[in-house]
Amino acid sequence: MTTPEFATNRDNFCYRHPDRQSFVLCQRCLRTICPECQTPAPVGVICPECMKAERKNRTPAQKRAERRWSGRGGAATLSPVRSGRPVVTYVLLAVTSLIGLLQLVPGLGDTLTQQLLFAGVYLYPDLSGMPFEPWRLLTAVFAHGGFIHLALNMLALWMLGQSLEPMLGRVRFLALYLVSGLGGSVMVALLDPTQATVGASGAIFGLMAALLIIGRHIGANVTGILVILGINFAYGFFVSGIAWQAHLGGAIVGALVALVLVKTKRREQRTWQIAALIGLTVVLLLLVAFVPPLILGA
């Protein structure tokens, strides 16, 4: 119920539809707009005129990105998340941080780490004498070797997720993260089956490689991303205790996932996109099923 003052105040009506009352303001011009005139933005909503002005002022790279990724006319499948909030990123941050903090609890941390870490020997009980626990390929992504290790990876996840998740959508971003993490574990199993490893680094490198591929595809300047990726990868060779194999595997698989996404972004290619991602996952599992036993049995 509204007061007479509200009903007679024209500022409480949509400026494009004077007969419609509204309590919502455009976040750009602060004029009242009704639901029909509202376009969701990262913070609040904006009106059609401000949206038109924003599109007019976009850089050429932004315009190319919108044409290729936003799905105008229903052609593409990689549409941004409407709310602009990287929900999957936040969930991954919360779950991984909770597990990481539990690992710091005396008496509980060592047991939890032992249950989550990955080593190739857990895939081949006949050769290693260890129990068969293939789920460790992914559980290791959510465990870390200390607070600094956890903090650095979560900072990287937060920064990368802010850009990638709204661009790809929640399901594709989650698939990219998990398959990249799987790729990191697979590379550890291939190159050093006896090495025990924990950490989201493989998944993080997958995100960096994907951002590089997607950025290059939309015509953005990717030099900075390439330099950061190279520095972080080289760092693993000079510091002991870092599983560079996971970095390598995550980066390769992340790049492959990104290539699948950019080559199958149209709506009619959705089936091929899903099939390609499933196929890539199956190939990774087949690699650890057949190649490492030859190494362990040598």
SSE sequence, one letter per element: HEEHHHHHHHHHHHH
- Overall shape: it is elongated
CATH class of the largest domain: Mainly Alpha
User: Beta fraction of the residues?
Assistant: under 5%
Unreliable runs: 71-83
Helix content: 55-70%
Question: What is the domain total for the residues?
Answer: 2
In order across it, which strands form the biggest sheet?
Answer: 1-2
Can you summarize the main beta sheet? Answer: 2 strands, antiparallel
Counting helices, strands and paired strands, the structural category is: mainly alpha
Mean pLDDT: 83
Q: What is the total tally of β strands?
A: 2
CATH topology of the largest domain: Rhomboid-like fold
Describe this structure in words.
The protein has 298 residues and is mostly helical. It folds into 2 domains: 4-57; 87-296, Rhomboid-like fold (Up-down Bundle), CATH 1.20.1540.10. The chain has helices at 4-8, 48-56, 60-69, 87-102, 109-116, 125-128, 136-139, 147-168, 170-191, 201-217, 223-238, 244-263, 270-296, and strands at 39-40, 45-46. The protein has a two-stranded antiparallel ribbon. Residues 71-83 have low confidence and may be disordered.
Question: Key features?
Answer:
60% helix, mainly alpha, Rhomboid-like fold, 13 helices, two-stranded antiparallel sheet, 2 strands, 2 domains, 298 residues
Q: In summary, what is this structure?
A:
The chain is mainly α and 298 residues long.
SSE diagram, text form:
Layout: H1 4-8, E1 39-40, E2 45-46, H2 48-56, H3 60-69, H4 87-102, H5 109-116, H6 125-128, H7 136-139, H8 147-168, H9 170-191, H10 201-217, H11 223-238, H12 244-263, H13 270-296
Antiparallel strand pairs: 1-2
Helix pairs in contact: 4-8, 8-9, 8-10, 9-10, 9-12, 9-13, 10-11, 10-12, 12-13
